[in-house]
Design brief:
87 residues; mainly alpha; 71% helix
Length: 87
């Protein structure tokens, strides 16, 4: 459907650009990009509707060393005590 608009618009704008309208050169580039994006989105939506979408596997967080975590928490506790003036 979008191609029915983009192709004639491209032809019109290229004829205007070749006729001397310099602003039309922007549209000469824009209409094919818009048409390509419409095709991309159409294919993507069809794939999603059919359930062919890529499924991402959830990332598991890296294992945390318990001793390092406890050491970090002790450090934060001393910093907070020092900042609040309770030493």
């Amino acid at each position: 459907m979008a191609q029915l608009i983009c192709i004639p618009a491209f032809v019109i704008e290229i004829s205007r650009a070749l006729g001397g309208n310099t602003l039309s050169w922007v549209y000469v580039v824009e209409w094919p990009i818009l048409g390509g994006y419409a095709v991309y989105m159409w294919r993507r939506l069809l794939r999603d509707a059919r359930g062919e979408a890529r499924t991402r596997t959830p990332r598991t967080p890296p294992a945390v060393d318990e001793e390092k975590l406890a050491e970090w928490n002790r450090y934060l506790e001393t910093v907070h005590r020092r900042d609040s003036g309770v030493e």
